[in-house]
Amino acid sequence: MQRIVIFGATSDIAEAAARDFAKAGASFILVGRNPRALDDLCADLKVRGAASVESRIADLSHVASLPALCNDVQNTLGIVDVALIAHGVLPDQQVTNDLCMETLDLLQVNAVSPSLLMIEMLRIFKTQGRGHLVVLSSVAGDRGRPSNYFYGATKALLSVLGEGMALQHAGSDIKILVVKPGFVDTKMTAAFKKGALWASASDVGGAIVSAVAKGRSGVMYTPRFWALIMLIVRNAPSFIVRRM
Amino acid sequence: MAESEITHASWGMYPPEPQHMRKLTSRHAGLPLTGDETVLPYGAGRSYGDSCLNTGGTLLGSAALDHFIAFDAATGVLTAEAGITFATIIDTVLPRGWFLPVTPGTKYLTLAGAIANDVHGKNHHRVGTFGAHILSFELLTSDGGRRTCSPDENADLFAATIGGLGLTGFITHATIQLMPAASAFLDGQSIRFGNLDEFFALAESSSVNYDYTVSWIDCLSGGTSLGRGHFLRANIASSDLVAARGGKTGAGLPLSVPFVPPVSLVNRLTLRPLNALYYQRQQASVVEKLWSYDQFHYPLDAIAHWNRIYGPKGFLQYQCVVPVAVQREAAHALFLEIEKSGQGSFLAVFKTFGAVKSPGLLSFPMEGATLALDFPVAGERTFALLDRLDAIVVEAGGRIYAAKDARMSAATFRAGYARLDEFRKFIDPRFSSGFERRVMGK
Ligand SMILES: Cc1cc2nc3c(=O)[nH]c(=O)nc-3n(C[C@H](O)[C@H](O)[C@H](O)COP(=O)(O)OP(=O)(O)OC[C@H]3O[C@@H](n4cnc5c(N)ncnc54)[C@H](O)[C@@H]3O)c2cc1C
Fold first, then answer.
1. Which candidate among A46, B23, B193, B259 keeps its CA 20 to 30 Å from the CA of A69?
2. Owning domain of residue B219
3. CATH code, domain with A138
4. Interface test with B, best of A44, A189, A198 (most B CBs within 10 A)
5. What domain range is A209 assigned to?
6. ipTM of the predicted structure?
7. What are the pocket residues of ligand 1 if the criterion is a CB atom closer than 6 Å to any ligand atom?
8. pLDDT digits (tens, 9 = 90+) for A76-128
């Protein structure tokens, strides 16, 4: 039985991954902000086969409380097999008014908080000698594009941090997986027009669960064709990226 | 609140009218109404015609209300949100020995969609409609109401909402009684029959010992073989039988029609040889079978988006029922009309309904024989043929299924549904649909 903690558990991708983990009888601690949404997900996962589900209500942008939260998770689960870090926000860069304050907030939620959780969970995994850390980054972190470079910058931080950790622990039982989804149809992207490149949250959630089952470490693009797209985008001349 | 524009919103892709969609995000929130628009709940769009469309108004999408709420594996009582699909329910409960009490021929519909059309399955002759297995549901109405409805509580609203075509309010979640299932397989027979008399004899002799019956009819053959086809009858298999016969479940969704081709791939040239081929495929007159539940209940789900083969004009599905007292004569007249026209689809589905009463005011099934088939939209002659079929059905005292309809007249609807006036009192003033405006006007 896998023991799993999910930070930002009610995000669509986390929820989809949790449902797949639940099918196999996992035990969960779900961390999130909205008590009702957490209760709904707890009930859902139990019906789908979870062995046990607990929730913790927390504002993850209060970074000072994160070490205690991680200790609580470890004490409750005993061993933590998988930690999925999935919280984050997607600001509309076009309508940002107070750039300075909003950038600080964004950095706190999307970058500082998940980084601290990565560091804390890695510390716990080292004491266990094993564990799988999965962090939700984004293809947006691969290149600064005019439309969303603030968001992209926060994801770039997570990608680099996770990639470095993965390389450092390569060959050991501590795995770090950086997930870079392309366009995903979720609550966060509800206002966007959808086309052929869009994946569903359950596709991405399923990809995460099977990557964990295979013990994958390093960077994963999902759906896979995004690896190719981003290879091109990373190497495209600036005059093209300017229009993206 | 997520708003979007969608096309091809009903399964028949007809009428081809773009829709404005607003998705609900939580069952705890109130109805998201703005201005004075009309709204209509929307599930998975597995209805064929305009009963799931609200052109000029807004659809209230349930896709994100897809949580289970509770399941008791000892009693088979399941509570889940409106937008959960039958596919997800089966995935979750079948490994624990339960199955849906009633399922239509697709598993990609939603729980609330199944209530709103009071769907039926191949076991109607034994257990009635889906509505007969609903213990309760919660309904949101535009006056701000949030009511629990069950046979004992708000019983009149309960009856109106079952088969109520989404017009009485928005269902947030429902509790249903599942049915025990010893395995994921069905065992029984496929029997070739040569005409309608043989069909009715088989239906009668099978109704006692088989929980599930259905037949496929070759609508293009006439004369003495009018109404020839294959009769399938089955029960859920015991786990011993499955082990002995080595049953294997097929993989899900192997094929898909990826886009709408420019013209319909279904026409006279492709149909006649296909139908004849299907009829003759099975050489022996009786074949023993072991089906996975997917093969038996959901053969069409094996090809995702099969509806697209009809091309951009879309297609019409026609389903009627005629009462038991006149079912032979009426069925004969219907098949004769279809055979003469040469317009019928690859295969028609034919089955007898039983006498179990549904709680729903506008429920479609009645004791008798039901026929369902597809027609590519081939202009006026298609509509004229369907009007002639309607006349036969009305004359026989039968009715047409709203879930499949995009063209019946108001008079045909009124003739079939005796409790329509009683139902009207329960229509929420802010709720409407293309179907309602077309056939329920006073
Ligand atoms: C391949 C195939 C085979 C089929 N076989 C059968 C069959 O054997 N027997 C049968 O009975 N039907 C059959 N159908 C029809 C199908 O079962 C019904 O049309 C069903 O109602 C579709 O459900 P849906 O979730 O897709 O809802 P939709 O088609 O989106 O909506 C159907 C109705 O439900 C209402 N509704 C949806 N959500 C809610 C809600 N939350 N609250 C209140 N009302 C709501 C809508 O307003 C609408 O009136 C078949 C359809 C297909 C595509």
1. A46
2. 185-242+256-414
3. 3.40.50.720
4. A44
5. 3-241
6. 0.92
7. B 11, 40-47, 51-52, 62, 82, 104-106, 109-110, 112-114, 116-117, 119-121, 165-166, 170-171, 300, 403
8. 999 999 999 999 998 877 666 677 778 888 999 999 999 999 999 999 999 99
Residue B357 included in any domain: yes
Output the domain CATH number for residue B197.
Answer: 3.40.462.20
What separation in Å is there between the alpha carbon of B404 and the centre of ligand 1?
9
Residue B73 lies in a domain: no
Cβ–Cβ under 8 Å, residues B366 and B323: yes
pTM: 0.94
A-side interface with B, Cβ within 8 Å? 23, 36-37, 40-41, 43-44, 46-49, 187, 190-191, 194
Asked whether residue B440 is domain-assigned, the answer is no
Q: What are phi and psi of B293, to 5 degrees?
A: -60, -30
User: How much helix, strand and coil, in percent to the nearest 5, is found in chain B?
Assistant: 30, 25, 45
Residue among B14, B21, B23, B42 whose CB has most ligand 1 atoms within 8 A, to mutate: B42
Q: What is the pLDDT of residues B13-72, one digit of tens each?
A: 999 999 999 999 999 999 999 999 999 999 999 999 999 999 999 999 999 999 999 999
Residue B252: per-residue pLDDT: 47
In our burial notation (b when 16+ CB lie closer than 10 A, e otherwise), range A111-129 reads bbbbbbbbebbbebbeeee
Rg (CA), chain A: 17
Q: Is the pLDDT of residue A198 over 70?
A: yes
Residues of B in contact with A47 (CB under 8 A): 68-71, 78, 80, 92
What domain count does chain B have? 1
In which order are the strands placed within the sheet that holds A131-136? A52-57, A27-32, A3-7, A82-85, A131-136, A174-181, A218-222
Task: Using the predicted structure, report yes or no on whether residue A28 has a pLDDT greater than 90.
Answer: yes
Q: Copy the structure tokens of residue B84.
A: 């959960």
Nearest CA owner, ligand 1 atom 11? B119
In a mutational test of the pocket of ligand 1, which residue from B13, B19, B46, B53 has the highest number of ligand atoms less than 8 Å from its CB?
A: B46
Q: How many domains would you assign to chain A?
A: 1
What does the longest C-alpha to C-alpha distance in chain A come to?
A: 53
Q: Is residue B405 classed exposed, middle or buried when 0-12, 13-18 and 19+ CB atoms within 10 A define those classes? A: buried
Of A23, A44, A49, the CB nearest to B67: A44
Low-confidence ranges of chain B (pLDDT < 50): 251-253
**Helix, coil or strand: residue B95:** helix
Instruction: Kindly state whether residue B158 falls inside one of the protein's structural domains.
Output: no
Structure tokens at B65: 């209300």
Of B23, B67, B92, the CB nearest to A40: B67
pLDDT for A86: 97
Say which of A23, A48, A190 has its CB closest to residue B68.
Answer: A48
